[in-house]
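We close this part of the discussion by returning to an individual protein. Part of our work consisted of pairing the sequence of a single chain with a tokenised description of its backbone. The amino acid sequence and the backbone structure tokens for this protein are reproduced below.
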Amino acid sequence: MTSPADVPHLTPNQINALVVLMVEARRLTNVELRELAGFTLTGKDNEKLVKLGLVDTDRTHRPFAHELTEEGWRVVRQLHTSAPPKQGGSTTRSLFVVLSNLHRSLDRLRVSHGEFFKQTDATAPPASEPRQEAPAPTADVEALVRAAYRELATAPGAWVGLADVRDRLADTDRTALDGALRAMLGREDVRIIPVANTKSLTPRDRAAAVRIGNEDNHALAIGPA
């Protein structure tokens, strides 16, 4: 289980920045941050979040743009486990209450934060279109993923490529499988990560990736919590 020690000490403004980037689930410029939340991410606040590996800041052009890293997503998901900074007052304390209840609700629904907040332009099909068969429930697909992982992994916690998992579950609906993988990311024993060396990825690896938090992920590990 994640402990408060896994969450770095952050200022109220740094916390606000992480939360806004999470709920928008996309890259935001300082202009957009100001329009949405009334502040920008600059100076020491920006420097610390980048140094901690929580935010990726594009400084190649102005206005600067910011996006959560995978570590940033992990920390913002766990913010509620730490004590809110005293200088934040009642506003920050209230935000932590919201984050705690959000985490509890998403865990009950088995939906990851990244999936819940992801931006999408998809619209519902017209009523005249024939209804497609509903995909299998997430819990059922998760059981299939875990069974496939046990067959592929050399040991509990070993990394397995999602391409291999998809091959084992070729008859499983792609949308249902992606939804199950995103939901599993919230489990204490599950890790899903991108491959750091993207040059090593084959077309098969890229096609099998699952999009989480605006990033393609390619490897799965399931081990002791």
Notes: The longest helix spans residues 89-109. The first strand starts at residue 28 and ends at 29. Residues 29 and 62 are 8 Å apart (CA to CA).
